[in-house]
Amino acid sequence: MPFLHHHPFSAASRYARLVLAEYDETVEFVEEKPWVRNAALLAMNPAGILPVFVDDNESVVAGGSVITEYLVETKGARMGEVRLMPEHAADRAEVRRLVEWFAGKLHGEVTGYLINEKIYKRQMKAGEGNTSPDPAAIRAARANIRYHIQYIGYLAARRNWLAGRELTLADFAAAAEISCIDYLGEVPWEADEAAKAWYARVKSRPSFRPLLSDVVRGVPPSPHYADLDF
Fold first, then answer.
1. Is 171 helix (H, G, I), strand (E, B) or coil?
2. Average pLDDT of the residues in 55-67
């Protein structure tokens, strides 16, 4: 059976989990602590970042974006039209641009700050970097999130899905990030109705259900987090 080394509130891990679920893959999950140097994890991925996927054939694939494209190439063909990557090169380029935007820019400006300050620090033990949340980092994330929600709304209002006519990896890359932020109640949904409607569509997919059951001790989810109708 394949393995996915992950953390429940690593957005990149959530991205991989969503695509695995879309392809109906049975996977054994191994929870890791992103802030702890794990020799076994470093042997698989010298960068030491999550997620890391180990396939049935013992292929080791590291990184959310790399894993999801690997899944499209190795598992997508049997899904018929539900491949999550378009047929034409220019359309695939747009998907990759948006994946990079959400997994890179949105994560770097918003998700990474909030998850580190509000979840990871709470889970760290003494000596693992356990410090009080940094108010400046949280303020920066809150200042940046509105712009990103409005950009998602801009895309959703002009396309059927974020990258175009079909559901693609771009939608799951965005939704993985937003789901972490939404758990914490930090998404200003009033800023853009089109973004809210898009997220409701993605959140209603069966692949999303396992994510909505993830909880952090001492950090309850926002009231609407698991509500498919907001």
1. helix
2. 95
Report the side by side order of strands in the sheet with 60-62: 28-31, 3-6, 52-54, 60-62
* Pairing mode of beta strands 28-31, 52-54: unpaired
Whether 70 contacts 31, CB under 8 Å: no
Tokens representing 146 are: 């509105």
- What is the Cα–Cα distance from 202 to 219, expressed in whole angstroms? 24
Alpha carbons 61 and 175: distance in angstroms, whole number: 22
Q: What is the length of the chain?
A: 230
Confirm whether pTM is higher than 0.90: yes
Q: pLDDT class for 132, splitting at 50, 70, 90?
A: confident
- How far apart (Å, rounded) are the C-alpha atoms in residues 202 and 172? 8
- Rounded CA gap, 93 and 24, in Å? 25
Task: Give which of 164, 162, 166, 202 is closest to 182, Cα–Cα.
Answer: 202
Q: In degrees, to the nearest 5, what angle opens at C-alpha 116 toward C-alphas 112 and 117?
A: 120
Q: State how beta strands 3-6 and 52-54 pair.
A: antiparallel
What is the model's pLDDT at position 17? 98
DSSP designation for 50: S
Tokens found for residue 129? 């970097």
| 150: DSSP letter | H
d(CA 17, CA 170): 14
Q: Residue 102: CB partners within 8 Å, gap ≥ 6?
A: 170, 173, 174, 176, 177
User: What are the tokens at 111?
Assistant: 């998700």
